[in-house]
Every structure is written in C-alpha cells, then in structure tokens.
Specification:
0% strand, 4 helices, mainly alpha
C-alpha cells in the first residue's frame, strides 16, 4: 500500500509543480515589465538588454515557483483525498 501512495504522491507533486509554474509565469511577466520598462524608457537599457532582463526575470520566477512547489511538503491525507476524487470513490476514505 505504501508503494501506491508513494506513486500517487509523486504524481501529485508533479502536478503541483506544473500548476505553480503556470501561476508564477504572469507574476514573472509583471515583475519584468515593472523593473525593465522604466529603465528602458529612461534610456538606461537598450532593447536587447531589456529582452534579456525580461526573459531572465520570467524564467527565474517560473523556476522559483516550480522549486517551491517541489520542495513544499506533501501530506499523505491530502494525496489520499486527491486520489479519492480522481478515482471517483465518493469519499470512502472519510467513512472507512
């Protein structure tokens, strides 16, 4: 039973990583525009530097979001409830 729970826990963690990476994407875009646009319009950055800085901030936020989701601890009860909903077990875990 432990092996099945470990497999579901890994799948749950990977889904959480993908979800948080997608959530971090607009945050990174907002941060990159917030930092880079004023510098570009004040002629402190060239167009190429603006694109590099924006890309690095976006990729960094996506990477950080995925890393946080990967390292955040996963509780067995939340994984069991997720499996229960995914397999349409109709809350048999809570009544057992």
């Amino acid at each position: 039973m432990d092996a099945y729970l470990t497999q579901w826990k890994n799948l749950y963690r990977l889904r959480r990583v993908a979800r948080w990476m997608l959530r971090a994407l607009p945050v990174g875009a907002a941060l990159s525009l917030g930092f880079s646009l004023p510098l570009m319009f004040s002629d402190a950055l060239l167009r190429r530097e603006f694109l590099i800085l924006s890309g690095l901030l976006i990729l960094g936020s996506v990477f950080l979001g995925g890393l946080l989701a990967l390292l955040w601890p996963v509780q067995a009860l939340s994984v069991a409830r997720h499996v229960e909903r995914a397999c349409n077990l109709q809350e048999r875990l809570s009544t057992a």
